[in-house]
Design brief:
Layout (H helix, E strand, L loop, with lengths): L1 H7 L7 E3 H16 L6 E7 L3 E3 H22 L7 E10 L2 E8 L19 H12 L3 E7 L2 E8 L7
Parallel strand pairs: 2-4
Antiparallel strand pairs: 1-3, 4-5, 5-7, 6-7
Helix pairs in contact: 2-3, 3-4
């Protein structure tokens, strides 16, 4: 994590950071510290281009960290033969989408409390708060083929 923070060190909040090397270094760091040698799980980063302000990069990095750690913690039970987490960032003009998906077991339906209310965890609250800072929305899809969380920022041209 220190290497990733060093990537941002010395930049002002409005300085531009290239997303591909930033997220690649972040995911390499997460893999090195969180995936043991005997655990066949890979983290793949798919980013073609794009740059964001240093302050946006920090928020994106925190979102990716939270979602990747959630995937490593919950998606692949101890007897999983192999697994993959994909971090993807796509940009078109001022619109962008960050997604973190895994091919794990999917989310169990344990997030519903005794009185039928959804109980968001701390990680969910953090991701939503960071997405709000980025003026983006969060969407979660989960099933037996895995879980995908996307954070999307879309601007629309004004029509007269």
């Amino acid at each position: 994590m220190a290497a990733v923070q060093q990537h941002l060190h010395g930049t002002g909040p409005d300085d531009l950071i290239e997303v591909a090397p930033y997220l690649s270094k972040l995911c390499e760091s997460l893999a090195a510290s969180m995936i043991g040698d005997g655990r066949p799980i890979a983290i793949k980063v798919l980013v073609e281009r794009g740059s964001v302000s240093s302050s946006q990069a920090v928020s994106l990095g925190l979102i990716v960290t939270e979602l990747v750690l959630n995937g490593l913690k919950h998606a692949f039970p101890g007897d999983t033969e192999r697994g993959q987490i994909i971090v993807q960032y796509d940009v078109v003009g001022t619109n962008w989408k960050l997604s973190v998906s895994d091919d794990g077991v999917g989310k169990p339906d344990e997030s519903v409390g005794r009185i039928g209310q959804i109980k968001p965890g701390l990680g969910t609250s953090i991701v939503k708060a960071l997405a709000d800072q980025l003026e983006a929305r969060v969407k979660v899809l989960s099933g037996p083929q895995g879980t995908s969380v996307s954070v999307t920022h879309a601007t629309f041209a004004k029509t007269h």
